[in-house]
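input
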Amino acid sequence: MKFENGISIIIPTYNGEEYISKLLDSLVNQTIDFNLFEAIFIMNGERDNTTEIIERYMKDNPKVNIILSESEKGVCNARNKGIKLAKREYTIFIDDDDYISHNYLEELYKASAPNRIVLGSFFDVDKETEEIKESYLSSPLLKYSGIIENPYTTEMAGALFITTNKLIPTINVKNSSFNPELQNGVDISYYSTFYAENDFEFFIVDKKKEAIYYRLWRDNSISRQKLSYEFNITHRLKVINDINKGLKKAKSPEIYNFIKSLTVGQVVLINKYLNENPSDYEKVLKDINSYNFEFFPYKYLNEDVKELDNEEKELIISYAFSPTNTTTSNVVAKRILTEKKNVDVVCASLDDLDKDMLLESIIKEYIVNKYVIESSFSIEWDNVKNFVEKGLEILPKYDKIYSRAFFSHSHFLALEYKLKYPDTYWRAEFSDPLVKPLGRRTSSAINDEEYVNRINSILKEKNLELININQDVNLICEYLTFIFADEIIFTNENQREVMINGLPYDIKINKETISPQPILDEKYYYITNFDYEVDENYLNFSYFGNIFSKRSFEDFISAFKNVKNKEKLRIHIFSKNKTLFEQVLPKEVYDITILNQDINYFEFLNLTKKFDVLLIEDSYTKGDEIINPYLPSKLSDYKGSKTPIWGVCEDSSPMDKLDLDYKSKLGNYQSNIQALNQIIKEKLNLEINSDIDESEYQRIRINELTEKISELIEVANNEFRKDEMYEAQINELNQVIQNLEQENSQIKNSNSWKMTKNLRKIGKKFK
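output
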């Protein structure tokens, strides 16, 4: 489309009779050639005398090109109609209660250029006193002039995201539109996509030119609107949805981050509503979840925004960290999300392990700098040493550091950092004991004489027991961390007792903290809406995790196998070893079980809120530990869901000491039956009892498992026999091939082959 020279001014007007004359006067008195602009007035909504006022100006000032049109109700519809009517090469939006200086159009037009947005100066006019004063977005427009090298900053945000006071190439405006579903937040919605789609240059007219846009200031700004669910929640989410559309089109990280930052202002308005209506929190979370946003600033939701962005940063040292999907990664991420402080992170790339990109997208809102050390996963000392050495090379000085193991790499790097910067405060957390009792190794010997000698020279100065090259890496990790860390964090008292008493060193520490794994805010349970069908006609149980020798699921099996009316129950299992469950579940339990593959962390959180009862069990430690030091990591996530929990607990374990909704004892048949009966009675109002005694059940279960093992052995033997048969067939074929190759070689070496060479060449030609 070919555009005429000049400017199209788009002016929506609705009940504007009180103010419109001021704007018309400013248009009539413009210094620019009147042939270089058109003023398109769009009437929308109920009518007053505005139309008559405009028509009178048109009659009295025929030299001014005024166009009068109409649209459906709403400022967005009006602006969209104006965009369709615009014929000039540049466009300006003006509100009907504002006005412009006499040279405004001329100065902005002089500075115009293709792919450039031109801004003038900006002032507010008090409605009551007519006092002219600077507004919150005047500062950069008065401070800068000419081309702005870095426009996408917080300082420029107000000026860039107000609809008015901009000369914009019409060719770009024609490819855009305002969202008519919005009643407020229209400007942010529009420019979020507009700037993302177009890579503009921005130019500010020098304030000395006095090319000024005057905005009538009335006390009806968006921040002063009366609290309501529609305004503070429904409309804000619509605006955030449009911001997300812009994010998907952003052409550079600068524009992406700039547009993303606009969501915070919308969340501030959501928070104002939640402060007054906390009981609506879950409803708000569900509404947010219904949009399936690519980005939502959960960091700021239901928080004091000003308190979150601290300047003093702690360094998090975690060998495995998001997006690497491990229990350690998730717990460190939870620490950051619950402590609500900006941090720096150093971690290994671990590209060979599974990734959870959704968790990374949430946690990175708290991460200022992330140092990633290229490394494949290994617990061998050479890998630990590589992580430590590369970490020390890249890390600056911090006042505070935090490290977490399970994976000793984290504590070893923190140790070396502490030795390099003794004044740094080091928090060290252990998820579980790294060292096993009775002298059993959990890692290989360190076998690094240079390292051992260097550390021992430091230990000698402190009159502490020395380490040696034959000790395993995990033992040395625990010992040195206990000595040099300023604070030791344990998840429970049992763990503290086992770890402190389990080392072959005489050490005393008084710097420990007991801190169970953190429980996330409810908002994180709604980040994703996992589309999983749960039939409410059943009593639905759910188990998340794997099974192995020390955590076998047998206690739950014993309970579910021996209750009547199992058709009223459903068990939902989510696990990486789904096949193993298929083998161990007896038919009666298998028939009421739905087996699923493993899911990511936020899908797991979301699902925990959808079931009637969550299942969790202790690890069996009798014979391995003096007392059970393990607290299942998923228990904190279960608690955050507020869904009832049934825990199968080992005597005096950390979980056994907690107050759970339902509790039974590990290896105690009657206890498990009683717990399930209690759940069924409370949830279904049914009395269901077992009529099989424990010894009889054990005999039946052993027979079932023996039969299953026999079946698996037979399957394996059949596969071995197939392999032997295939191997024999392959050997036979190889022998045939060797015979053919030998015969072929004999033929080629024969006189008859040589004599027929020319004939074979002729044959190829005729083929």
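quick obs: Residues 762-767 have pLDDT under 50 and may be disordered.
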